[in-house]
Amino acid sequence: MKIICIGRNYVEHIHELNNEVPDEPVIFLKPDTALLRENAPFFIPEFTQDVHYEVELVVKIKKMGKFIPVQFAHTYYDDISLGIDFTARDLQSKLKAKGLPWEKSKGFDHSAVIGKFLPKTDFDLTNLNFRLEKNGEVVQKGNSQQMINSIDQIISHVSEYFTLKVGDYIYTGTPSGVGPVSSGDKLVGFIETEEMFRFNIG
Ligand code: MG
Fold first, then answer.
1. pLDDT digits 0-9 by tens, 38-53
2. How far is the CA of 96 from the centre of ligand 1 (A)?
């Protein structure tokens, strides 16, 4: 399986990192070794002093597809989840400054937290609230209406470049409020009132 991530999909988050609003979705990949499942603790790697959480809606692809039209994209997923795109922000800033690929700062082991999956029919995908709590305080809040590119637009665009296969995950971008984690922090993510993950920073 592969993990496809969308960058710069929420205007307020683009502004907080002083980036430009892109003309089309920004795409990057994480390897399957990036996954961190089942509320396992996350340990901060030694190569960074500034790991940021980025909470994101995630969809799981259920059938193979290529050149998927937007109007059929909804038939390619049934289940949604919430995840974290952990980012070594210090390393990413260095790589960006040199115009180099982000992979080391984004795709390292356990950088892709994934929560439980629920059927999309449980929710209104056009008006979906989600949030991240750190040590009991809300640090990020988002709504699917704030996405520059919708889930279906993302699937269509991504599938022009990468064949989507059963079990692939797409992380759909983070709203504003990203910030650092420290050893001992407790992170809990919700879609609406459903707790999707709960884990500690080791
Ligand atoms: Mg992200």
1. 999 999 999 999 999 9
2. 15
Q: Provide the residue ranges of all domains of the chain, joining segments of one domain with +.
A: 3-200
Q: How far is the CA of 7 from the centre of ligand 1 (A)?
A: 5
Q: How many angstroms is it from 150 CA to the middle of ligand 1? A: 15
pTM: 0.96
Cα(105) to ligand 1 centroid in Å equals 11
Secondary structure of the chain as H, E, C letters = CCEEEEECCEHHHHHHCCCCCCCCCEEEEECHHHEECCCCCECCCCCCCCEEECEEEEEEECCCECCCCHHHHHHHEEEEEEEEECEEHHHHHHHHHCCCCCHHHHCCCCCEEECCCEEHHHCCCCCCEEEEEECCEEEEEEEHHHECCCHHHHHHHHHHHCCECCCCEEECCCCCCCEECCCCCEEEEEECCEEEEEEEEC
CATH class for the domain made up of 3-200: alpha beta
